Amino acid sequence: MSDPSHFDPDDIARDDQRLANAAERMGPALDFWFRPEIRGLDRMPGGPALLVGNHNGGSMSPDSFVIAVALYRELGVDYVPYWLAHDMVVSMPLFREMVPFGVLRASSAVAHEVFAAGRKVLVYPGGEQDTLRPWAERDRIIFAGRTGYVRLALRERVPVIPTVVAGAHEVFVVLGAGPVLARLLLTKPLFRVKTWPLTLSLPWGLTPGPPPLYLPFPVRMLGEILDPIEFEPNGPDAAADDAYVQRCDDLVRARMQSALSRLALERRSTGRYAFFGRRWAGRKGGQG
């Protein structure tokens, strides 16, 4: 077995065969636990692209695996994106083992290498403020004013592909007081994390901050890959135009919020849980 300490989170040499094997093994378990349905897979273009998602579930981010399996099944391993992750995540021993699967340190230099190789990147612009948003805001897109993803797409001249999953933030419960605890625990200077809320999860119960590992609640995930957005103009000059970048960000967030609100409403009317009750309306087998 490889020594995780030797994995380089800046190295894009992903092991695609290992990733495909993992998708084959994990797929049935994800189908059973989350009954996922991911729509719009046929909208995914070939070549380099920047997938932009709403961040859910803390550091485990189970919907990332759901999206990866759906893309693998429908389009093949070449369409499974690399994931750009926070420094704190790729530095943790257990999560460092994800590097061979394409989980890399979030940086423009790493993204540039992936795009140059003709591959795709998945980013979550809202970071910890999105993935640790309170339960009451679980159906909101929260990017916290971060527009670096737009500048990246413009500089690299790649399309942005909004990717939304409803239900994935219900795998645990995020309570309030996040900014207060973050200030008390000095998480911003120590880890570059601005929020540290109380969370309720299995089997840990009530804990301060997100547990690194937990048993997700068996919630139904309903997602969609939206139409690619190709910004014109693009290039370095466009990326340096703050007003233009903000307009691009407004467009992406508006489309994502519209889709998330629509999918969340559908979940509420057809069933929120994977195998409790009789009102789940998704297809057997999950991905679609």
Automatic annotation (TrEMBL):
Residue span, Phospholipid/glycerol acyltransferase domain: 49-168
GO terms, molecular function: acyltransferase activity
GO CC, any one term: membrane
Keywords (A to Z) from UniProt: Acyltransferase, Transferase
The protein's name: Acyltransferase
